[in-house]
Design goal:
- The structure is a homodimer.
- Chain A has about 350 residues and is α+β, with helices and mostly antiparallel strands.
- The first copy, chain A, has 10 helices and 13 strands.
- In chain A, the strands form 3 sheets. Chain A has a 7-stranded mixed β-sheet, sandwiched between helices.
- In chain A, strand 1 and strand 2 form a beta hairpin.
- In chain A, helix 2 runs parallel beside helix 7, helix 4 packs across helix 6 and helix 4 crosses helix 9.
- The termini of chain A are far apart.
């Protein structure tokens, strides 16, 4: 066997087989026309699919190990938003050429997270592409049949709106890397008048060669963008406690809006309550507001729950070690209203990220 | 909602929802973080994923309706090779731009086959790509837990080797379209000394502007390449009757070899027994042999079964209206030996299609 098959074997098949044995779930993994697996009794299958395309979702010079991690993480995040427990995943890997070092690092990042998440690689496809790297993952998981999953249309008027973790860091990293972030936005002391084309530089170069940028900040925001943590444990713990949930991939407002539209309700958010990444304390209020409200790739969960669930949710958050913050309320009037610390209505300019819209700079 | 979301809604969501209702299988389709569905009691999930990349797996000027059909068909073919019944599918659609006419035709081809196969579209992802169309499908199906699926490692020594339908037509179409086929290979009467760059021409132009090519032949081979029929009914009917099975996507020899390697056995094939597409009777013996033995994209099933199953298989084939042909035997000695009509051993030059190998012309 040569070419693509040897490649699959070398980097994915053997470790994946070990993962299967460790997981004890699947009956047949990579190497046949299909993978075969059993959904545990009393459980319902949950399935989701996300693509990541070079130049569009990641830069060509991205660390391949973090890319492997992130390719699976963004998919697991969809399972988390459903309250589903992972069962297995399939990887479609489209590459313009075979690069051993790249494949070794990418597969390590992917399979390490697969193992850590109990989500063994059970199948996929490897193809040669003419130009760009094209990654496509399908994740399979399960939710109990007896309990409602975390559905977008399940939000109820008077529900609290909650968000996990902190917001904004990944968006800031993206804007710095894409050269969309004018460094003059940095508050005095860290500001520079020079607008550097940062997407030509590696993270290391950024940290060490452009002195005005705080290296701890860069480290923190880069980690948020490159190594997102899917909130799987939280998602499962929310079953029976939360109503509607969504993961924040396109921005808080845009993703919350999916819940609102599906549930035919509206929301009030209180800006001072929003959990801001400490990295954002160093940037201007305008950049901060955009990053928190409309910044993509946070992969935190936004969910709604009855007010009577507050104590239960706080206790659960402590138990599993995830920060949960109440940021607003579901209301009858459609749309999203955001109030600042003086209870004045804010009109945010950007409502997230749309693959087929022009991106604002 | 704008951009990608409107696009999904317009072309895929509404018809997909109708398909879900018609299928009565899924509990939640497109529009949430995951699709939710139930695997019927006593059944085991079968899942497979295949990618199709522009310039690599299809030409840019391919009829989008046939591309939509084929994108799903090649995935359903993997379910067929397992004996699985379809449950649902997910589509990853990477497009460089939004083209209404293209999307309308593509979605029609895709959803028509989904409906006809009882395989509703339950989810997916739409992304903008920088250069090429990138298609990725995951199909879900199920097999009975109580009965062995058609696994590659299940072939037994003395098994008959069978193949469905006829071989070679799709490969000839591909070679004509790619300009790999020297028309001087046509037997006298249809031959031309001119090697035309046919991939610059549409199928219609080929048929009407280059007189030496038989238009009925072209029609037949183009249909085989563009509108493959996944052998779903046959696959399910083979459960309990066949041992090992594979679908022929990369060429008879290469795909049969997957069975042989997994089962640690070898095979003897008899060339005069191979079911030749009538389109190939017009081409030279060399081109014919390559197309039958190593030609890809046939999407017929190759399977092995005990000799005692011959009558049962023939009756079943008649019942479901599929041609089945016995082409050889599983033997202990590893490798594939092919004998011609004079019982002389043939050494075929090419053993199929490998995405990361150089393609022979």
């Amino acid at each position: 066997m040569t070419g693509e098959f040897a490649l699959i074997d070398q980097y994915f098949k053997q470790p994946a087989a070990q993962q299967l044995i460790a997981a004890g779930q699947s009956v047949l993994g990579i190497g046949d026309d299909c993978a075969l697996l059993d959904v545990p009794p009393g459980m319902r299958l949950a399935v989701s699919k996300d693509m990541l395309i070079e130049h569009r979702h990641f830069f060509s010079n991205v660390d391949p190990q973090s890319l492997g991690h992130k390719t699976l993480a963004v998919n697991l995040s969809d399972l988390a938003a459903m309250g589903a427990k992972p069962l297995g995943c399939l990887l479609g890997l489209g590459l313009p050429q075979v690069d051993d070092a790249w494949l070794s690092a990418f597969s390590t990042g992917f399979l390490d997270l697969a193992m850590a998440s109990g989500c063994p690689l059970i199948g996929g496809d490897t193809v040669k592409t003419p130009n760009d790297i094209s990654l496509s993952v399908t994740v399979l998981g399960y939710v109990p049949r007896a309990q409602p999953a975390l559905l977008r249309h399940a939000a109820q008027v008077f529900d609290d709106i909650w968000v996990s973790g902190e917001l904004g860091a990944a968006d800031l990293a993206y804007r710095i890397r894409a050269g969309l972030f004018d460094l003059s936005h940095m508050p005095s002391g860290q500001a520079t008048s020079e607008k550097v084309n940062l997407n030509k530089l590696s993270a290391n170069q950024l940290m060490f060669e452009t002195a005005p940028i705080d290296s701890t900040l860069l480290d923190q925001v880069n980690r948020a963008l490159d190594w997102p943590t899917p909130r799987l444990q939280l998602g499962q713990a929310l079953l029976g406690k939360a109503h509607a949930a969504v993961d924040i991939s396109d921005g808080l407002l845009q993703d919350l809006n999916h819940i609102l539209q599906a549930s035919h309700v509206g929301a009030i958010l209180y800006e001072p309550l929003l959990p801001v990444s400490s990295a954002l304390l160093q940037v201007s209020p305008e950049v901060r507001q955009h990053a928190i409200l409309s910044g993509g790739e946070a992969y935190e969960l936004c969910f709604t729950a009855s007010q009577s669930a507050r104590l239960q949710l706080s206790e659960m958050a402590q138990q599993i070690g995830v920060q949960l913050t109440r940021i607003g309320q579901i209301v009858e009037a459609q749309g999203i209203s955001i109030f600042d610390q003086d209870n004045r209505l804010i009109k945010p300019h950007m409502f997230g990220f749309d693959h087929f819209s022009k991106q604002s700079s």
